[in-house]
Amino acid sequence: MQASGSRELKLRQYILDGKLWQVILYITYPLAIYSLFNHLYGFIDMMLVAHIGNTEIASVAIFTEIQHMVTAFGAGIASGGAVIVARLIGANKIDEAKKNASSVFFLAVYVSAAIILILVPLAEPFLRLLGTPKDVIETGMGYFIVQIFTTGFMTINSVFIGLEKAKANTRKILILNIIIMTIKLILSVIFVYGFDLGIVWLSVATMSAQGCLTLFAFMILFNKNNIFKISFAEMRLKWTYVWPILKLSLPIFLGKFIFSTGRVIINAMAAFYGTTVVAAFSVAQKIGGGGAQLALVVEEAVPTVISQNLGAGKMDRAKKVYPIALGFGLTMGVFTVIYGFLLKDYILPFIIHKDSSPEFIDMAISLFRFEVFSKLTSAAISISLAMFYGFKHTKIAMVVNIARLFIFRIPVLFLFQQVFKLDYIAIGYTMFISNTSTAVLSVILAIVFYIKLKRNPTMSANYI
Hints:
The protein is mainly alpha-helical. The chain has one domain. 81% of the residues lie in helices and 0% in strands. The protein is built from 20 helices and no strands. Mean pLDDT is 80; it is low at 1-5.
């Protein structure tokens, strides 16, 4: 397959030879713009939900975390598949990259169909199994059913976006997502403000937008001019391609699944204090979210740049990516913490119900004072884990997420609730302790990994 004149291979050369800090920023800036738009539409979504009521805020917060848990497999195979494809691009093995891209994509299609077929008929018992409060189930069952279909689209879209990231084609991702977010935003405003409909229709707006992105994904991936042109003849998965993808992706999936499950469990434990606390916690997380997204988006460039350079045999260059990216992420995280504290009183009125009590507002502010530091620590965690993805050490990332949940989070909240008998502020303490501890752990593991890599460069000698 001759594609030497393609944009993708020009990007490959830039990733291999350009100044690293410029390469990281070049890949990141379209995603950063997209991230800001995404935060804006999420912020507006919160405003629309707040217009309906605080129980609805709690419902959306709980169902969103459940959705993240369900989409973890798609996100896992997207990340793992993108690493393999990026390494093959770095090695200039375009035909092999195409075959792996096809396998990743059709695997996502089959997983999406399975998610819908299994979860739609089992929605209510599934929510009860996860400890979802009864009033949230009653309020949001329709919302959740629609979200299941949305999750199917999102799984396919995650893989499509992952493949575009593997090619460093982030500007295309930006353009498509701005279109999708515009569709979502227009429909949401029409449904809530125009027709005064409930949260089910917010979910319908999201499903419609994600469905459009899936349509775009099929059009682009099946286009004859695409370097990874996929055909329906490749729908039959070959184990020789699927197994390496699954081997790399399953630890990522388990890590993401465990982390998302932990958020679901934390929401269920927070409901111990009432759904009002869950709503206040959700509001607290939204303050400063824009800057947090910018800090987190740096991680997106890390696996691509590391993988392509490893594929080309440039180990020393690949090792320099992590400290540069970590510096960018932590700088943005510090900025976010500062502006979050300075602007919280101006942001809060937009994302709470107009009839919210002073107690609810105090609750949200109290939780925010602890939650805001996660904007810094989450950047350190995500960028460190992204580095391990790039070096194909996904099991380490899984271990970090397991520790985050089963050592630093659930036991800590249990102690605060059952032993020390703290009120809702226990959630703030728990999130601060777990996020800070996990950030320290992930950075220490990264340092240890780099020391071992220096002593034994063959640790990642299996570039492809």
